[in-house]
Amino acid sequence: MKYKNLILIGTSHIAEQSLKEVEKTIIEKKPDIIALELDKKRFYALTQKGTRKISLKDIQRIGLKGFIFNIIGAWVERKLGKYVGVKPGSEMLKAIELAKRNKIRIALIDQDIEITLSKLSKSISWKEKWHFIADILKGMIFRKSELKRLGIKKLDLTKVPSKTIIKRLTREVKERYPNIYKVLVKERNQIMATNLSKLIEENPDKLILAVIGAGHEEEMLDLIKSPEITYSFEFK
How does DSSP assign the chain, residue by residue? Predict the structure, then answer.
């Protein structure tokens, strides 16, 4: 998607297609700024080889529910990534690698992960927690039947899902996990759209490439086009 001096790439964090698209777009378009769906903590976690140990203070700061949700989500993503042979976040690493090699400015546009997880701990309901456990089990045991229920014939994890599939999955999340959707999608969309709007305004003559999850793409573009925006962002 393109708007003014902004190009948006909606990715799947474990899709080979996303890895190739990010590399191709950077090489061909030669952006002046690459904006990433990351905050400082996730940026360093992704780029540093060593794994930082989680302390009790970390858990207390973000909340137990947010911590557990993050652990389970990361585990599922790693399992899926291993299945398709692509490490989660590879498209972000490729963007960072090419940005450093070509001396392209990097903008980190997402909300601090600890703020997100803290909000999640406070917002998630018991009903959503039970849905989450049930859906993980159903996803492992009855995967085909669940896709069929959503009207999805086949889901190719090596490719970015179509807009139709994304809309169906988003609708399902909204219905079953309204609080999780609000914290992980809606609020972050607003923050990232605000930060991209700031970049567009301050760099009208620069080409900006934003690499974000495909599920954020359409709503973020609508928000960027909206005149009612406030600013708050961080740069590398």
Answer: -EETTEEEEEE-TT-HHHHHHHHHHHHHH--SEEEES--HHHHHHHH-SSPPPPPHHHHHHH-HHHHHHHHHHHHHHHHHHHHHT--TTHHHHHHHHHHHHTT-EEEE-SPPHHHHHHHHHHH--HHHHHHHHHHHHHHHHSHHHHHHHTT-S---TTSPPPHHHHHHHHHHHHHH-HHHHIIIIIHHHHHHHHHHHHHHHH-TTS-EEEEEEGGGHHHHHHHHHSS------EE-
Give me the domain span that covers residue 214. 2-235
Which residue has tokens 């991209």?
196
pTM (global) more than 0.85:
no
Exposure string for 181-198, b = 16+ CB within 10 A, e = fewer: bebbbebbbbbbbbbbbb
pLDDT digit string, tens, across residues 80-107? 545 445 577 889 999 999 999 999 999 9
Q: Which tokens sit at 87?
A: 């490490």
- With a cut of 80, say whether residue 13 has pLDDT above it: no
- Residue keyed to tokens 């061909």: 28
Cα separations (Å) of 165 from 85, 130, 147? 22, 24, 10
Domain count, the chain: 1
The label of the residue with tokens 């049930």 reads 134
Higher per-residue confidence, 25 vs 58: 25
- Residue found under tokens 């914290």: 183
Convert the pLDDT of each residue in 182-213 to its tens digit. 988 899 999 999 999 999 999 999 999 999 98
Phi, psi of 108 (to 5 degrees): -100, 110
